[in-house]
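Run log, item B.
One chain of 181 residues. Sequence copied directly from the ordering sheet:
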Amino acid sequence: MVAPWEVFLGFAVAVAATIYFFFGSFIYGSAGYQPTFRRVVERMLEVAEVGPSDTLIDPGAGTGAILFRAARERGARSIGVELDPLRVLVLRLRRYFGGPRERVEVRFGDLFRVDYRPATVVAVFLWPGAMSRLKPILESQLRAGARVVSHWHEVPGWKPVFVDPQLKVYLYRWPGVTGGT
């Protein structure tokens, strides 16, 4: 028979893990965890015209909604960057068991210290403060023709070439996103 304290302990651990999973991102300061809905991911990949010749970087990859769909359905090489160790574990398990392993790379690291030069597409769903911090990094590293697709929050100071107001999807093309630079 299970002792009452064991039931309580198991419940407490489950609650703590759930709270950490959803709110632990606040510790790292880039965004709280919020899954990206399937129709939003599909729209982001569609407007960014992600295909087999692309390298997509997903900073703050979360549980990999964008990362895995870009690789599986669009044939892109996908690189997910995540700082939360629990989410990195989830991403690595998803890659191992669900693949496609050869086109998905999971990196444990800070999205502000990533080399974005290989990216032809950067897919972001970050808070405004994180977007402001990421903006100069992208401006200094993106290659000509790269696309940045964002959900919910715009990149401050950039002019999108496409906006889906219903789903809050913003597409930017580099260079030229700052109005002609």
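Observations after the first pass:
- Residues 29-173 form a domain with the Rossmann fold fold (CATH 3.40.50.150).
- The chain has six helices and seven strands.
Flagged for discussion on Thursday.
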